[in-house]
Every structure is written in C-alpha cells, then in structure tokens.
Write a structure and sequence with these properties.
alpha+beta; Inorganic Pyrophosphatase
C-alpha cells in the first residue's frame, strides 16, 4: 500500500509543520484557535502544538470572527519595522481573523483564507498585527477583495474586541492601541515580512 505525499506519520505541529498556504501572501492557511462561540481563550502550545487553555475571557466580549494564526510566520524585527512606535514584534506567529458566513464552531481546523486587509495593533510596545481575511470558498464573503468592501460595523467590531478584550472596567492602564485599518496590499507585505522573520528565527525547518 502506498501513502499519499506528503504523508505525516505523526501529527504535524500547526505552527512549524503546516504550509503557509496555497498561494501566499494572498491565499494562506489559517490554523483556528478560537471561534466566535468561545468564552475561553485558547492558544497553541509552542512545544507540543496542542491547544492550551490560556485563560477564561475576563469580560462578556466574544471574538467577532474565527481567530488563529498563519503557519510558518513570526512577528520579529521585519514585522516591527512596518509599525510606527513598535519596539519589537510579539514573538508569536502572525494572527489572522477570518470571516465566514456559515458558523464554524470547531477550533483546531485548517482553512484556506483570502487576505483582504488588517489592523495594526500595538500591545505593550510590541507589533501584534491582526490580518483580516475571508474563507476562500465562502458563498457570501468570497467575492470581497479588500477590507474597504466590508461593512464598517464589522471592522469596528473587530477593533473594539481587540482594544478591550484584556481590559476590565475600572482598569486605569491602557496597553493596547490600534491604528487605522490597512488594505490588502499592505497586509500581504506584513505577511511577507512575517515569513521572512520566521526564516531568520527558525531557518528552513
């Protein structure tokens, strides 16, 4: 019996063992950690590749979209250089938010995503960009080419979530700021920078 190529004898690490995507930087893979139905924040464990409970959400706010990361990307010096006032990248894979018309309730899934833009998030001086994309085969959103085509309410909802999801009422400290959304062209450049940062950090693993 012959096995398909490539064949993974063991479960690949979602950050290091999966491909960036079919046609990066415009069409990428997203490994989903959190769905819009989750009240607990999950993050991929960097050692094992399994999802780990990071923390229950502190507020009643829920993620407005599917949320995960692009495999084989890293937010390092080149990503930080693209964001004013950033001292460094956050040292994590590049985050991505994905719009889907049909509810996707499972995490730890891989989906094809067409990139349409992003939000430049600065968290404690670290570049923590949120790339925005649409499910590539979606019946409703697949026609969208750029973030400017989205209803502004959706973009505002994403901005509000990431600005406030760590903040409790009465907290005086504000460590997160988000600039104006950027278009598909800039988002693709951020992805290319994150791919280059990954190569610098980990080599061709």
């Amino acid at each position: 019996m012959s096995f398909p190529q490539p064949f993974y004898r063991w479960r690949p690490h979602p950050w290091h063992g999966l491909d960036v995507g079919p046609e990066p930087p415009g069409l990428v893979h997203a490994f989903i950690e959190i769905t819009p139905f989750d009240l607990v924040k999950y993050e991929v464990d960097k050692v094992t590749g399994y999802l780990r409970v990071d923390r229950p959400q502190r507020t009643s706010s829920q993620p407005p979209t599917l949320y995960g990361f692009i495999p084989r990307t890293y937010c390092g010096k080149q990503v930080a250089a693209m964001m004013p006032k950033a001292k460094r990248g956050d040292g994590d894979p590049l985050d991505i938010c994905v719009l889907s018309e049909r509810p996707i309730t499972k995490s730890e899934v891989i989906i094809n995503v067409r990139v349409i833009g992003g939000l430049p998030m600065l968290d404690n001086g670290e570049a923590d960009d949120k790339i925005i994309g649409v499910l590539a085969a979606d019946n409703i959103w697949s026609h969208v080419e750029d973030i400017s085509e989205l209803p502004q309410a959706l973009v505002q909802r994403m901005r509000h979530y990431f600005t406030t999801y760590k903040v409790m009422p009465g907290d005086a400290s504000e460590t997160v700021s988000i600039g104006g959304s950027y278009d598909r062209s800039h988002a693709e450049k951020v992805i290319q920078a994150a791919m280059a940062d990954y190569e610098d950090e980990f080599g061709d693993v």
